[in-house]
Amino acid sequence: MNNNLLHTEIQEFINNNLNSNTSELLLKGIPFKSVDSKLIIEQIEAKNRCQKKLPTWFNAKNIYFPNKLNIEQTSSERTANYKSQLVSGKSIIDLTGGFGVDVLYFSKQIKNVTHCEINAELSKIVTHNFDILNTTNINCLNENGIDALQRIDQPFDWIYIDPSRRDDSKQKVFLLADCEPNIKTHQEVLLQYAKNVMIKTSPLLDISATLADLKHVKEIHVVAVNNEVKELLWILERNFEADVIGKTVNLQKHTSQHFEFYFNHESNVTANYSQPLTYLYEPNAAILKSGSFNAISKLLNVDKLHKHSHLYTSETLLDFPGRRFKIDNVLPFHKKTFSKTKITKANITTRNFPLSVNEIRKKLKVKDGGTTYLFFTTNLNNDKIILICSKI
């Protein structure tokens, strides 16, 4: 950590050049001899990535930023805030602290917080930044989290761990066994030191396969931001053996969409099916990832169009964790039939349909945009249909 980066004139240069072309800045030459120009460029690029993702850090003065990879791997403030609402008690230890975003939000809920980071440079950066952000209840350790847990040798109310999803060659991995530390081999140790363990994993992870790898899973949270799944959270509780609860959330700008179900019920219930009725519902990305396709039909009293279509319908308008539409017309998928609608511009979605969106646009000569929404899907009779809709 080069403290010269925090000098007033260098900080002003960084802030004044956040929108500059960094390659051109290097070519022109950066007028500071006390700091390597590449470090200043690294600060500019890293801070740029924080503007929307980490506004607390972006807006604070004299924050020291790590490289872009650390910023890429860290939680956003929105997801960190969500996680902080899941924990309680007096103590929590983050075994893979990273840039410390999750820890900062845990510190708003829990009195004693421990941040473990094996990278000495990053640990110094985080310690500095926590001082800048006026936190007083976070203890930073430059130590392997598992080793620290066993050295401290005391119980915590919660353990949080976000295993590194990069291998020795810095390539992305996402299977639990490929991440570091390996949760499969350490889960019993974690539950020895805390009754509650929260594990953050890649959204690409297969939920059913991972359930077979983990023990004592109490809850699985599928967390999406603006309809993009960002992370899976696995809540383990010591000796827990009951049904696993699935919780999906889609964090939006002004509201959040929540849905809750039991994983074992999904395979034990049958969805209701019908032809398209008055309203159409498209589940958000978190629900699609959770696989709760039958449960949502039963619990929300909506009918499914087809086993594999994952679109729902009802006669009366209902609250639904996803997009809602009024069905204006239902057509068989025929070019001549569609041409009579005179629709030349629309938003197109496919579900359980043999053609891609681009293929449909080319075939039917429909441009992107407008206020008309077209869903190309398959109904319960296996007919290919077009749903012409208006968004609610």
From TrEMBL:
InterPro entries: PG_1098_Fer, SAM-dependent_MTases_sf, Thump-like. It comes from the Bacteria. Keywords: Methyltransferase, Transferase. GO terms for biological process: methylation. Residues 279-321 form the PG-1098 ferredoxin-like domain. GO terms for molecular function: methyltransferase activity. Residues 322-391 form the THUMP-like domain. SUPFAM superfamilies: S-adenosyl-L-methionine-dependent methyltransferases. This is RsmD family RNA methyltransferase.
